[in-house]
Design brief:
alpha+beta, 1 helix, 20% helix
Length: 51
């Protein structure tokens, strides 16, 4: 596999950034209908802001 193929693959699978602190989000835990907690940073935010 070429280096370019690896770079484009990692770009398409990059994690979204936390809207509060900017860290990559690996998982969002829903704590209510409009509340979520980002992991691993632990910031609380409205999950709709990721869209």
């Amino acid at each position: 596999m070429s280096r370019d193929a690896v770079d484009s693959e990692s770009d398409s699978t990059s994690l979204p950034n936390c809207p509060t602190c900017g860290s990559p989000i690996a998982m969002v835990t829903m704590t209510g209908p409009t509340d979520g907690v980002a992991s691993p940073c632990g910031c609380q935010f409205v999950p709709e802001s990721l869209e």
